[in-house]
Amino acid sequence: MLATPESASPPRPVIPQAVELETRSILKKCVAARTALADLRYAGKTFSDPAACASTFALLEAKDSCQIANVVTAIDPLFKAANGLRVKDDDATRQILRCRAALIAAAAASKYQRLSIVTAATLAHALTLEAGFTPPSENRLTHLLADWARFQTESEDIDPLVHLAVSHYLFTSAQPFALATGPAARILTLMGLLNTGLIDLPVLYLSRHLLATKGSYDRSLAKVTETGEWEPFLDYMLTAIEQSAIWTNGKLRATRAMIDMTADHIKTYAPKIYSPELAELIFIEPYTRIQHLGRSGIAKRQTAAVYLKQLAAIGILKEHKVGRSKIFIHRKYLYLMARDENTFTPYPPPTLG
Questions:
Q1: 305, exposed or middle or buried, with CB in 10 Å at 0-12, 13-18, 19+?
Q2: Kind and range of the H or E element at 242?
Q3: Closest CA to 58 of 28, 30, 100, 112
């Protein structure tokens, strides 16, 4: 559970001048990270519907972001719950879904809202809604986030990526929302990337890298607080952004390739039902139900049932009965998203007869 009572914030070091932060080594890291982010932006532009990639990546980011805070659940029931299916009720799943909803809302708000204490308070409320958490008072929050808020407006001459890394540290070290601080800090970092135009979609899977290298993250964070040494932490965060962009780029390209393969398979074996919207929908909703086709304007209920049964018949979806309803699961895509590897096999030709 992310919500815990307030605790005293640790002392924070004085922020050095831009010239001290932007060493030659750090600026080289900025170039590499910016290149990786540009490639990621390009990969995102290959999707006609951004939701085809954004919703799943937001769920994965929320899962690992919460896992860093020791909130853990299995991926299969999480995907089911995210798609509106009933699963065993547990606090971890609810918390991760709150985190995903907060991330998606923050990404939408980043188009018109700059980072501020109000942004942080709104985010904390979304993360801890119904979690029994009492947020800090307005005065307490203003005090805790004074350095962070001031840095948003007084340090605009710093490279945007260095600025994001320093902001992440200042927010995290202030611990304004107890255990919800970490997920909030990671969402604010993604908001910052969207604010500055370094990414267009909330798809950067940053928490995967932070979770895998948590020891290095914690040590470099502590070094700033204990010794005022910024370069190891900046190096770590820039590497995390670069490697996350590279990983996400590969996964986006694999998703795009799978969508194209799926479209070709439908055109070959069920051409009468093909539409680009149908091919992408089963990636947006990998646990597809009849009403999903209706809401998307693809087909009315009776026709939608026929379409989904045909997709199952040609080997794209697996049909399952849940209570009185039926769901159609896109297991090939779920398997792709659950692994680091980006390879996948073609759908088998449908059996005749």
A1: middle
A2: helix 231-269
A3: 100
Where is 328: in which H helix or E strand? strand 325-329
Token pair of 84, please? 């509106």
Segment 91-107, tens digit of pLDDT: 888 889 889 999 999 98
Q: What is the pLDDT of residues 176-226, one digit of tens each?
A: 888 788 999 999 999 999 999 999 989 999 999 999 999 999 999 999 988
Higher model confidence: residue 218 or residue 321? 218
CA atoms within 13 A on the CB side of 199: 31
Element (H, E) at 320: strand 318-322
Structure tokens at 287: 């646990």
**Residue 351 CB neighbour total at 10 angstroms:** 8
Domains of the chain plus CATH, in order, are 18-251 (1.10.3290.10), 254-337 (1.10.10.10)
